[in-house]
Amino acid sequence: MSTTARGSFFPVIRGSEIRACYNQHVVNKKTASSLEGEPCKGSSEDTRQMVRVEAAVELPPGAEVQITVCYKPDEGSAAQKRVVDLAGERDVTTKHLSFEFLPGKRQKDLKNSLRLFWKWFKTNALTPAGLFFWAVAVYYLVRLIRLSDFPIFFFTDEAIHTMLAADLVRNEFIGPGDELLPTFFKSGTTYNAGFPVYLQVLPVLLGIKSVFATRFVSTTVTLLAALGLGSIYSRVHSRDRAWLAVMVLSLIPAWFYHTRTAFETVEAVSFYTIFLLGYIRYREGDFRWLYVALAAIVMAFYSYSPARVVMALTGMFLLISDARYHWDNRKQLWKPFLLGLLLAVPYFRFLYLHPGENQHHLEVLGSYWIKSEPLSWKLLQFGYQYVRGLNPFYWFFPNATDLSRHIMKGMGHLGWYFVPFFLAGLVLAIGRFKDPKYRVMLIALFLAPTGAAVAEIGITRAMFMVIPAGFFITIGVEYAYEWLLKTARQRKTYDLLFFFLLIGCNFLFLDRVLTNGPTWHNYYGMSGMQYGARQVFGKILEIRKADPTVPIMMTPDWANGTDVLARFFLGDPVSIEMSSMDAFIDLHKPFEPETIFIMPQDDYIRVINSGKFEPMKVMDMIPYPDGTAGFIFANLKYHKLAGKEFEEELVSRHILRVDSVDVNGETLDAAISELDMGELQSLFDHDPGTVVRSVEANPLVVEVVLPKPTAYRLARVMVGGSATQVTVYALPEGSDNPHVSSLTVSESTEIRNVMVPLATDEPVTRLRFEVRTVRDGEPAHVHAWGIELE
C-alpha cells in the first residue's frame, strides 16, 4: 500500500506518520466490505472469499492523502488496484485560499440533479413537444428584451388602459353613471376600450405602473396566439412541427412590432386564435373545446371594435360551412348557446345605457356607412375596402397607407421574404378545401379584413390577417424544407439545425430592430412617431424632485392624448400646465419669470421667429433618436415692445378685406376676413368642394351689401365638423339696428349645413355672417364651404 500527498499547499504525509493496523479476515461475499475492488472474473460466487483491510490514518487539518491498494483476486488473474482519497478537516488558517460553493453533500446532490436534468433534456426537450416549448420561450424572450425601448414611442392608446383601470379600482369597480363593471370605457369621445382595461387591473392593484408593466401584460397575452397557432398547425397539418408555426409567427414584421406594444388589437387577435383552435377541436369531436372557443370569442368581441365584425362574420360562415355537423350534434349545442346569450348580456346592457353610441363611433371613424348615400354605394365602398384588405402588395411589401409608427421600414406587414411560402401554402390548403380544418383557416383568411373594411383599411384594424397568413406561410416553409431534405437520412439532426437557424433569425431580427429601428423614420412629432413621452415626463419628475414648486408649462402638440400620458407618468393630480405655444406667441399671456417651458423643436423655432421674446435661457435638451434637438427646456421672457405688437395684431386680425362677389348673377360689394385658403367667391359658387379658411380670425366674418332691399327667410351656411356657432346680422333698409339670429351645432365628423332662420321678414340691404368655432380661441383657423340665401 502506498500513500501520496496532493495539493501544493498541503503538507506531505510520510509513511511513518500513518499508523496502520492490519487485521486480515476471511469473509463471505455477502458480508459488507469497506473497501471493495472490481469484480473477479472467472471465480465462483459460492467459493469466492474477500479480504478486509482496515487502516487508521491521522491527518492534520487541511491535509489530503491518497491510498492506493493493489491486489490479485486469485492466482490466475492480473493485479488490480483501488484508489481511495482521504482529507483532513478544513484548515481555518488557509480559508482565503479555497472556495466552497456548496457543502460536499449538496454538491453531490446538485451534480446528480444536473445529470438527471440533462438526461431528461436529451430525452424530452428535443422532441417535437420540447421544441414547441422552446419556440414559445424564444418568442416571448425576443419581445421582453428592451420592451420599454422599442417601439420608441409610448402611445396614449397604450397608457389609456392602465389609467382607466386605475380609475376603475379607485371607484371600487363602478364606472361613470354608477355602472358596475362597465362593458366599455370611454376613450376620447367614444366607448372603445373594453376587456383590455380589466387585464391591467392586476398591475394597478400591485401598485406597478410603468411602460414595461403595461406592455408586459399585453405581450404576455399574445402568448395565446403563439400557443394557439402552434397547436392549430399540429392539429391541422403537421403534428411534429408546431414549433415551426411559432417561429414563423415571431418573424412576421407587423406582429413582431405590435406585440411589443399595449395596443388592444394584438390582444383581440390572440383571443381570436384561441377561438379558431377551440372550434377546430370541436370540429374534431371534442365538445369541451366549444366552451373554450366561446370564451375566446367573447373576450375578442369585448376587446376591440373591428373584432366584433370579424367574430360575427366568422361565426356566420362557420355555421353555414359546417351546418350538417352542427345539426347532427345539436343536442350538444344548447348549453353553449345559452351560455353565449348570457355572455352577451353586458353588450345589451351597454346598448341600453348608451343608445346611438355605435353610430357615433362610426362617425368618429369617418365611416361611409353613416353617409346619406344609397345602400348600393355603401356596399361598393365596403367591397373596395375589402379588396384592398386582401391585396398581397399591401400585406407583403412596403406601402404608404399606414402611419410610420405602425410599420417596420422596408419589410411589409407580413414580410416580403415570406411571399413564395405563403403562395405555396395557400395553394396546398385550397387543394384540401374539403377537409373542414383547412376550411376553417381559409375562412379566417378571407374574413380577416372585414372589420377594417367598415371604415378604412389599416394594419391595426386588419391585424386578424396575421394568424391565417402565418398558418399558410408555415405550410409553405415546411413544404420547401421537406423538398430540400427528401433524400436526407438524419432528419432529426436537420430539424434541430433548422430550429436553431430560426432562433438565430429571431435574435438577428431583434438586433436589427433595436439597432436601426429608432432612426427608420426621422419625423418624431405628431404626424410621425410621437416620440418622447417616457423621456420628457421622466425629466419632469427629476425637476419636480429638485424643486416641487417651480411652474412648468408643456406644449401638448407633439402627441395625441398628452393629458393621459401626463396622468400616467406624473400621477393625479397632474403637477404641470399644458398649453400650446400659440397661446404665448399670438396673445400676450402673462407667466411667472421662473416658468420652465417644454417645447419640441418646431415650437422652439417658432418662438425665436416670432420676435416677441428676449433670447431664451435654455436649461436642458432631450435629443431625438437621430441626434437632432428634440425637446427644449427653457425660460422665456417677453421683450419690452411685445405688448405693442400684440395690440397691432389684434386690430389687424379683425380688419376685413374689401372684395366683390357674384351672387345669382348679380355683382355685390362684399368684405371678408383675411384668408389663407380659398377666395370669397368660393362661398357663393354652390360647390361643396371649394372651401375658405381664415388666417387667424375667429369668427370668420363675411359681409355683403345688397343693391336693392331684399327679403330672405333663411341662411344656409356650410361648416366643418367642429362645434360651430353661426350668427347672421340682417340690417333692414333705413335702420341702424340689425336683427340678429344665431344657431350652434355640436361636433360632427362631416361637413354639414347650418340652417339659420333670419330674425326679420323685412327687406334688408346688408347681411353679415359670422362663423365661430366655439371651442377655439383666437387666433384660429375657421373653415366655411358655402353660403346660400332663401
SS-based class: alpha+beta
Radius of gyration: 39 Å
Shape: globular
Q: Give the terminus-to-terminus CA distance.
A: 127 Å
- What share of residues are in beta strands? 15-25%
Q: Stretches where pLDDT falls below 50 for ≥5 residues?
A: 1-47, 91-101
Please give the largest β-sheet: 6 strands, antiparallel
Strand line-up across the major sheet: 15-16-19-24-21-22
Residues in helices, as a percent range: 40-55%
Number of helices: 28
Provide mean pLDDT, rounded: 87
Number of domains: 4
Commentary on this structure:
By secondary structure, the chain is α+β, with helices and mostly antiparallel strands. The chain has 4 domains: 2-97, no CATH class; 128-519, no CATH class; 533-645; 654-789, Jelly Rolls, CATH 2.60.120. Residues 1-47 and 91-101 have low confidence and may be disordered. Helix 12 runs antiparallel to helix 20 and helix 24 packs across helix 25 (562-570). Helices cover 42% and strands 17% of the residues.
Features:
six-stranded antiparallel beta sheet, 4 domains, 790 residues, single chain, alpha+beta, five-stranded mixed beta sheet
Please provide a brief summary of the model.
With 790 residues, the chain is α+β, with helices and mostly antiparallel strands. The protein has four domains: 2-97, no CATH class; 128-519, no CATH class; 533-645; 654-789, Galactose-binding domain-like (Jelly Rolls, Sandwich), CATH 2.60.120.
